[in-house]
Amino acid sequence: MAQSLSFAETKQMLTDYRWSLRRLEQDGQMYNVPEDMRGLVRVFLTNGMTYSFVPSDNETEAEQHKYSITKTHMTFYIYDDQMTFAYRIEDFIGYKLYMDVDNNGDIVTFVFDRAAKN
Description:
- This protein is mainly β.
- It is built from one helix and nine strands; from the N terminus they run H-E-E-E-E-E-E-E-E-E.
- The chain has one helix at 7-16; strands at residues 17-26, 29-31, 41-44, 49-53, 65-69, 73-78, 81-91, 95-103, 106-117.
- The protein has an eight-stranded antiparallel barrel.
- Strand 7 (81-91) and strand 8 (95-103) form a beta hairpin.
- The chain is globular and about 35 Å long.
């Protein structure tokens, strides 16, 4: 998947901003965010750690997980498991982060909007 930013710019964009989950996409269709994920914010720290929280959570208590990225894939390391996602950041009426998740053979895309600066 083509990135609209260089790899260095992508890393900086990920860590400079918080990312708010806006919608899900599958098979060319857009879907609302499930109720239990509404308001989800993902934060990527410059130290290679990431966390997410919803408004009802205490952000300071969010569990942090290691992440790594390449030009096309992002890997989260959670409880010794690796979860790898294809991702891209594109500037389409503001920057958006797209993460493709394989759900038993069905690809679901989580679409995040760039939110507040870290």
